[in-house]
Specification:
By secondary structure, the chain is an alpha/beta fold. The relative contact order is 0.08. Helices cover about 30% and strands about 25% of the residues. The chain has a 7-stranded parallel β-sheet with strand order 13-14-12-15-18-11-19, sandwiched between helices. Strands 20-30-29-21-28-27 form a 6-stranded parallel β-sheet, sandwiched between helices. The chain has a 5-stranded antiparallel β-sheet with strand order 3-2-6-5-7. It has 20 helices and 34 strands. Bound molecules: zinc ion (2 copies). One zinc ion binds near residues 471, 473, 476 and 491.
């Protein structure tokens, strides 16, 4: 591996130098000759070049981007065959600690370096040299008299109070003035025009000043004494790398506690990264942020426009102070000046990225904090076992919030035994729950019914031939969605119109819909509580951020009586009028049988329960279950979280499972079933043998076929001290992966399907 030299600041006269460039093109496999995607180029002798510079190059006759990784005087390739670098981007070079972080991620996840690098160089328009883009700032002469200015000029000057620099497009979009006003102001010297590459330290300083000003003018909100103490505890760890587990019951105000750390870092001119599990859903969170800080964070997720992302990318790479709040992909932004990372709801399995390259954002964020030498806070009410074991060993600092904020108390939790109080066939709400809901509706409170099943019914079966309607390209049953009138595969997303005709025998009107989804539950609610205002929170029904924000607002405003929701409702929402939460099927999820089924159910139910009674009115929680004696349910009811974690850990230890050991899954997929079987058979011959390392498989994956591809799996279980990546690399180096087979490596898998 190339070791980066520390002389990043040195500029080289590039004449006669050969430049090592790593490109954003992932080389197919890790065992190939060039796993780092590194190639040699000549540099145009007229330009200065340094490590970390982003460059445009040609590779196999295609234009692509890469990062300068080093220099050398000799190469095996004839100089006449070497290609020249096409151009050097004028954005500041990527910092060497960021490149080291990417190397470590590639090493750990076994994703090709080029693929990990592409996650950082994700917005190519950000480093394309568009000289046409000018940045404007208030001219330093500042000679104009404000009261003599036109309304639109005043508008622009006000805009600059919070934005030290901006493109014409940003100014126009946010103030509504015309381009000609901007141009006129440049002409008479009120605005200065700069090229992006000329961003100077003064710009950074003036951005910092504007953030400080905003924070001063923000409304002062008081921390409780418990919050203040917790914030102090975090701040004591905050000037170096450290991991803090911020462990607070739902509604205790963890957010404001970590806001204190963020505030401190911003005042020092630093950047902060806050990861949220479902950023698109959290308009309430962003409002809280704005209130506290007086300025807006940069919001980063897949729904943000590319033009906006480009500006964020540039600011982050240039080292401007500010806060990025985002989904897991924000972790790979090129922060030049990172001061703190926060992982909100650290236990959330949404942090595991399952597409493209597979990584766990929480775990990679801890690496990132290490390379940036900054603190990282893991906030949660239900710590993951991975974090809990580190707390026990003393590797993580543990800071606790034991009470809810203000006058709020923890809700009372009751179980309803579904065997004793069985609802009638085709219904899902038991008699005791019906009367509890009625009581709440009478006193004008809100009720939340939680059922983690999208659509109308999870199963459609033909009463004539008995065939379960299933996906044509996956081993997966089709879910009926009545609102959209579709049968849909939740595995691959494919859907077909619901025609009530059997896919197998063709008979019409024979499909029986079995089991509940949120839409069907809504039907039952309408008939039981006529007149109640009902809304469904599910990703199928609400699928754009504006729609979601509107619905959340109407709930907050008390315009809804009964909320029916999937796991989408469990995350972070604060509904002041909500005092009754009911879990329709507490056993869903416990039956899954995967490693984390119990842990996940406990976390999910704790989160849902935590939505109840977050303000003055005390809340109640009802869990309908056929297994009221299940350890997860008993622990939840009696608030014995730590005891539950202890039991789970004990079970994992006995079973030789994470977090005591490390798992790694290797999944081979192919459209050609025969070729796949033959290949995995060959792999068995070379199966490595080490003491204490168990390799299971090959076995068909539990969902054997997805999107027409057949899937075979090996599972490795090894002590944590073993370099499992090396075992996999050596093993795979023994036989090439044929071109019609794809390999996917999942270190620390969460999904066993
Ligand atoms: Zn049929
Ligand atoms: Zn499918």
């Amino acid at each position: 591996m190339t070791v980066l030299s520390n002389d990043q600041n040195k500029e080289y006269d590039s004449f006669s130098l050969i430049v090592k460039v790593r490109v954003i093109v992932p080389m197919l496999t890790h065992d190939s000759q060039n796993a780092h995607s590194e190639f040699d180029y000549l540099s145009d002798s007229s330009s200065k070049i340094q490590i970390g510079n982003i460059v445009k190059v040609s590779l196999a006759n295609k234009i692509t981007w890469g990062v300068v990784y080093g220099f050398k005087h000799e190469t095996n390739i004839a100089h006449t065959k070497l290609k020249s670098i096409i151009s050097i981007s004028s954005v500041p070079p990527i910092k060497s600690f960021n490149l080291k972080f990417l190397e470590r991620v590639s090493q750990y996840t076994m994703a090709p370096f080029g693929q990990v690098l592409r996650a950082m160089l994700c917005i190519q328009s950000a480093f394309k040299d568009d000289k046409s883009i000018n940045y404007f700032s208030l001219s330093s002469s500042n000679k104009f008299e404000t009261d003599k200015l036109s309304k639109s000029r005043k508008e622009i000057i006000n805009w600059f109070q919070n934005n030290p620099i901006g493109t014409a497009n940003a100014i126009i979009a946010e103030t509504g003035v015309s381009k000609s006003t901007v141009n006129a102001m440049v002409k008479c010297g009120q605005l200065a025009k700069n090229l992006f590459s000329s961003i100077q330290n003064e710009d950074v300083q003036s951005k910092l000043l504007s953030l400080k000003k905003a924070m001063q003018s923000a409304k002062k909100l008081n921390l409780s004494s418990m919050q203040a103490e917790a914030a102090l505890g975090i701040n004591q760890q905050s000037d170096k790398f450290s991991v803090v587990l911020l462990d607070g019951v739902t509604g205790s105000g963890k957010t404001e506690v970590y806001f204190e750390l963020v505030k401190k870092k911003i005042l020092l001119g630093k950047q902060c990264l806050i990861l949220l599990p479902e950023i698109a859903l959290t308009s309430g969170w962003v409002n809280r942020f704005n209130k506290w800080f007086g300025f807006e964070p940069y919001i980063w997720h897949s729904g943000i426009k590319a033009s906006k992302k480009k500006l964020i990318w540039r600011d982050v790479n240039a080292g401007f102070p500010g806060v990025v709040v985002g989904a897991r992909s924000a972790l790979f932004l090129p922060f030049a000046n990172l001061g703190a990372i926060i992982i909100d709801e650290e236990h959330d399995t949404g942090y595991k990225q399952e597409e493209q390259f597979i990584y766990h954002a929480r775990d990679m964020a801890i690496l990132r904090a290490k390379y940036s030498q900054c603190p990282i806070v893991l906030a949660t009410a239900t710590p993951s076992l991975e974090s809990w074991i580190n707390k026990i060993s003393g590797r993580y600092h543990h800071i606790k919030l034991t009470n809810r904020y203000g006058d709020a108390t923890m809700p009372a939790i009751e179980t309803i035994n579904l065997i004793k109080y069985k609802p009638p066939s085709g219904k899902w709400i038991s008699a005791p729950l019906i009367s509890a809901i009625k009581n709440r509706l009478v006193s004008k409170h809100q009720v939340l019914l939680y059922l983690n099943r999208r659509g109308y019914a999870p199963l459609a079966i033909c009463s004539d031939c008995g065939v379960k309607q299933s996906c044509q390209q996956c081993d997966s049953l089709l879910v009926t969605h009545k609102i959209k009138n579709q049968l849909r595969c939740h595995q691959c997303g494919v859907s077909r119109p619901f025609k009530n005709a059997c896919q197998s025998c063709g008979q019409v009107e024979t499909l029986q819909l079995i089991g509940p989804g949120v839409e069907r539950l809504a039907e039952e609610v309408y008939s039981l509580f006529p007149g109640a205002r009902v809304t469904i929170l599910s990703s199928d029904i609400l699928n754009n951020p504006i729609q979601i924000a509107k619905t959340i607002q109407s709930i907050e405003a008390g315009e809804v009586d009964i909320i029916i929701g999937t796991q989408m409702v469990a995350k972070g929402h604060h509904f002041p009028k909500l005092t009754c939460v009911a879990v329709i099927d507490g056993d869903l999820g416990l039956s899954g049988g995967d490693l984390r089924a119990g842990e996940r159910t406990f976390q999910m139910l704790s989160q849902v329960a935590g939505r109840s009674g977050r303000e003055k009115q005390a809340g109640s929680v009802y869990i309908q279950t056929a297994e009221p004696e299940h350890p997860a349910i008993v622990a939840l009811k009696s608030r014995q979280r730590d005891e539950y974690l202890r039991l789970e850990l004990e079970m994992r230890l006995t079973a030789n499972m994470p977090p005591y050991r490390r798992l790694a899954a290797i999944i081979y997929t192919s459209l050609n079933e025969v070729a796949l079987a033959a290949y995995v058979k060959k792999l068995i011959v070379f199966k490595p043998q080490f003491e204490e390392v168990d390799i299971y498989g090959p076995a068909p994956a539990p969902i054997y076929q997805i999107k027409k591809r057949y899937r075979m799996r090996f599972l490795i279980n090894a002590p944590k001290s073993v370099n499992v990546q090396k075992i996999i690399r050596d093993w795979n180096a023994s036989i090439r992966v044929p071109h019609n087979i794809k390999r996917q490596i999942d270190i620390d898998p969460y999904n066993f399907m």
